[in-house]
Amino acid sequence: MKIETIAIHAGNQKDETSGAVIQPIVMSTTFERAADGSYTSGYIYSRSANPNRTLLENVLAKLEHGVDAAAFSSGNAAGMAVFQSLKPGTHIILPDDMYHGLRNQLKALFVGILEFDFIDINNTEVLKQHIKPNTGLIWIETPSNPLLKLTDIKKVIRIAHKNGIKVACDNTFATPVFQQPLVLGADLVMHSSTKYFGGHSDLMGGVLITPVKDDWWVKIKQVQEMGGAIPSPMDCYYLARSIKTLPYRMAGHAKNAQLLAEYLQKHPKVEAVMYPGLPEHPQHDIAKEQMLGFGGMLSVCIKGGEVEARRVINSLELFTQATSLGGVESLIEHRASVEGPDTKTPFNLLRVSVGLEHIDDLITDMEQALSNY
Ligand SMILES: *Cc1c(COP(=O)(O)O)cnc(C)c1O
């Protein structure tokens, strides 16, 4: 089945007792046992499993061409489950341009437990130099946040697997609509479902998806169940509901982002636009090779510095100045000031989550903000 069909059907189950077309929300924390003490429904206690989470995990696994998924209460909880599933002393290689929240999590919570290096993962020589006997995982994030750099997924996987190392991919920016890392050979996919999966800036969640139920996956499911950072039945329901429109929303985000990127690129007050769909993007060829579309995120460097960039933000009316991304409404953010003192993000860079408003209205708003500064 095609992704539009999977998105609508794989996360839903009609209710046999009432005839309801849409699945009920099962709020119960506990499930009745039979006379002999067995659990006839298969459910025991909602931290271990809940019908709404089962449906959500089913659609997530199918969307990414995996065999199983684990849903968490946030993207960072999903990332943390990966790190907690590794043997203490394991060495991880990560990109130097990655989601700052997970980089900070490793630096704050895993010092002395895991070893990690943040490197330019696309540089094959640098990558090979950093592989050590205890390297167990290479983490990639593509397109990256906020520089929209791409990682050649197949190339990294080839090097990793030759050395017996697993590869996990943060697929939040692309979503399975535009990029399917498990099909390219990755060993794990991670998402912040707070972003495009949720799609309406009103729920938090994270997910992991596996291509095999191996020992590593068993460990990850243990962290989910025993750690307990699980989403509520309500959140699972809303997420499965949002996912039904994911393919159509992504098509709209990508169309708007492409047109906004092309408009910004020609503007005299713009120094640079980072968007993988532009032929001028240094890795446009990799994007065409491994992506089915270029996504809804772009970054723009305004001529001048932080002052000029802030003036543009403050003149915009439709774009809201706020962090996060992937909602139907357009957001814009001065990224360097969010990321803290060790940021490598340029101070004139604005990250844009291009929403689903009409593109003419978005461009008109940009036009007036850029002409004002
Ligand atoms: C937001 C984000 C995360 C973290 O997810 P939360 O839901 O905020 O915990 C991880 N990776 C990327 C790429 C993100 O954008």
TrEMBL record:
Post-translational modification N6-(pyridoxal phosphate)lysine, affected residues: K195
One GO CC term, this protein: cytoplasm
One biological process term in Gene Ontology: cysteine biosynthetic process via cystathionine
UniProt keywords, alphabetically: Pyridoxal phosphate
Pfam families: Cys_Met_Meta_PP
InterPro entries: Cys/Met-Metab_PyrdxlP-dep_enz, Cys_met_metab_PP, PyrdxlP-dep_Trfase, PyrdxlP-dep_Trfase_major, PyrdxlP-dep_Trfase_small
Entry's Gene Ontology molecular function annotations: cystathionine gamma-lyase activity; pyridoxal phosphate binding
Cofactor: pyridoxal 5'-phosphate
Family assignment from sequence similarity: Belongs to the trans-sulfuration enzymes family.
Name listed for the protein in its UniProt record: Cystathionine gamma-synthase
